[in-house]
Amino acid sequence: MPLVVAMSEISPEKVNKRGSTDRGAPGALSTTFFRATRDTPDAPTAALNRYEGGESRYSAAHFHEVDQFQIIMEGSGEFGRHHVEPYYVHFSRAYTPYGPLQSDKDTGWGFIVLRSRFDSGAQRFPWSLEKLKQIPDRKPWQVTTKVGFPAPAADVSVQDIPEIKDEQGLFTRTITMAPNARAMAPDPSIGDGQYVVVVKGSLIYENKEKQAPTVVFTKRDEPAFEIQAGAHGLEAVIMNFPKVSSREVADTAHAPAAGFKTLQCALCAFVYDEEAGMPDEGIPPGTRWEEVPETWSCPDCSAKKSEFQMVEI
């Protein structure tokens, strides 16, 4: 059976529990919808992490040992050098560094972390760097993108998010549903489990109305979940995890113009194209790698310039 938990149903002992304040950790307030343990390695984890307003909280760049989605639900801040706010979605493959994460001092922020398998926790830099280098056959890849919701042109309107997709079952879609409308979620068997996160409105499940935020998880071997909107309709994000094995590296690079080079971060696979430059970072198109300031760092995982390596095209 699917797991279906509304925020309002969570027991008090699982709400706003102070997280780790060890080196590089922010001491976030964590609210658990459900959580895997070492004894349940194939179980999912869903939790809302809040960084309180009034001060800027900081989480050092890190990686996880499993694939992970995150949805920004409230407030704002920075994922690496990507400004995020509702409803940005971040996906990272296992062993892909990202960050640091820093909340806005005034607004704070809250984001839901979603995993389909047990994870032992954030592996923070610089202390985890040597461990990461020892992982064989890594295929690092991540994406941070804002998702929109389709206009309610019919009882059910669905929109694909093309930035978060691969050939191994990974995809993200948003859905808008009219009051009391019904729709089948996509087949979860093509990947490694599927989440439906209701961010606005409400969901009807087993004759009970569950207000947003509500989190639904369907295992890869379970039937597709039937989504039924509540009395005021709903907006939701559907996220399907990719298969765990035999993944191909995402084709994020293109053949550069003659004479230009393309370089890739050895840690997280971010690509720097000399032809395109990075105007938003103050690096004009056509800037050779040798001319990029030594103080520049990767916008996804904060790796130093010295930690990049050439990508052969």
Low-confidence stretches: 246-254
Over the alpha carbons, how many angstroms does the gyration radius reach?
20 Å
Q: What gross morphology would you assign?
A: globular
Compute the number of strand runs: 24
**Order of helical and strand elements:** EEEEEEEEEEEEEHEEEEEEEEEEE
What level of helicity do the residues show? under 10%
**With helices defined by DSSP (H or I, 4 residues minimum), what is the helix count?**
1
Oligomeric state as shown: single chain
Secondary-structure content class: mainly beta
Instruction: Note the gap between the termini.
Output: 46 Å
Strand content: 35-45%
Average pLDDT level: 91
Largest sheet: 8 strands, antiparallel
Folded structure, characterized:
By secondary structure, this protein is mainly β. The protein is built from 1 helix and 24 strands. The longest helix is centred in the middle third of the chain and has 5 residues, at 129-133. The relative contact order is 0.15.
Features:
globular; mainly beta; eight-stranded antiparallel sheet; 313 residues; single chain
Kindly summarize this structure in a few lines.
The chain has 313 residues and is mostly beta strands. The chain contains 1 helix and 24 strands.
What layout of secondary structure does this protein have?
Elements: E1 3-6, E2 17-18, E3 29-34, E4 45-51, E5 58-59, E6 62-63, E7 68-75, E8 77-79, E9 82-84, E10 88-92, E11 101-103, E12 109-115, E13 123-124, H1 129-133, E14 142-146, E15 156-165, E16 171-177, E17 182-184, E18 194-205, E19 208-211, E20 214-218, E21 226-240, E22 262-265, E23 271-273, E24 308-310
